[in-house]
Amino acid sequence: AKLQGRGQCKFYSPEINAQLQERLALENELHGALDRGEMVVFYQPLIDLDSGKLTALEALVRWQHPTRGLVSPAKFIPIAEANGMIINLGEWVLQTACAQNRAWQLAGFPPIRISVNLSARQFEQPDLVQVVERILQETELEPSYLELEVTESFLMNDIDNSVKILKELRNIGLWVALDDFGTGYSSLNYLKRFPLDMLKIDRSFVNDVTSNSDSAAVTDAIIALAKSLRLNITAEGVETKEQLDYLQNRGCNEGQGFYFCRPVPADTISNMLEKDARL
Ligand code: C2E
Ligand code: CA
Ligand code: CA
Ligand code: CA
């Protein structure tokens, strides 16, 4: 950056410029993407580490772009967060995931939880609880088969209000999980105030739990903390047998990661459930 008159800063780095252009292009194309039917929900299994059974699925949105191919949510969710599109998109994901879960139940598969990510912007909507209730009614999904994932960073914005909303959500009868645990403020003082059902250990710790003693120590501490608060504990990003063994030994309840299964389209899950049912 080069200093201009009156202390203003002008960026001319070609790299930054290219990134900005890319972001602007994506933002433009994102408008109407939902209406054009370009969004798809993938599902990733959560495995019970005692029984080895699939107990839940996390809904993860993808953008099936006409020329760019499958665009990762890491690329477009931040844009949708910034311009408010996440509110409609998030509601659509919730609706799609609940309807899909109900469809699997009606097809006769053993009932499982479906877990949906909530964004900060959705959490700030005064009608969030009503929206969730309406979608559960419309899709005829029992609330106990829905889990919502929230993150510490946005719960901490307004703690009293967050506690109130979490209480209302849990009163519906659904489950609330704290996602990416260990990466946020980790104010243990507040953690006990939040009405939660599960903690998800961030994959940055799980990734090198068998190679880095700091990550192992953090993981152990999180598991111990979850147990003392009587929270269910899920490890994200399980990629190897060694990681799985470690987590199993420490009494972690559920695992999610490429070792078990990548996020896949609903059809692929249907085939897996069908095979399971025939066993
Ligand atoms: P997240 O909620 O932490 O979701 C888990 C991410 O970890 C997913 O990335 C998943 O594909 C990835 N993952 C799972 N297992 C492994 C593993 O073993 N190794 C590695 N390296 N990665 C693994 P994905 O699908 O790209 O999503 C990225 C993020 O985008 C999510 O992180 C979530 O914050 C956001 N996101 C995705 N879908 C939605 C949505 O519908 N609404 C909102 N608000 N955010 C979403
Ligand atoms: Ca998540
Ligand atoms: Ca996560
Ligand atoms: Ca994450």
From TrEMBL:
Q: What is this protein called?
A: GGDEF-domain containing protein
Q: Which residues form the signal peptide?
A: none
Species in which this protein is naturally found: Merismopedia glauca CCAP 1448/3
State the covered range within the intact protein.
286 to 564 of 567
Task: Cite the source lineage.
Answer: Bacteria, Bacillati, Cyanobacteriota, Cyanophyceae, Synechococcales
Stretches assigned to the EAL domain = 23-277
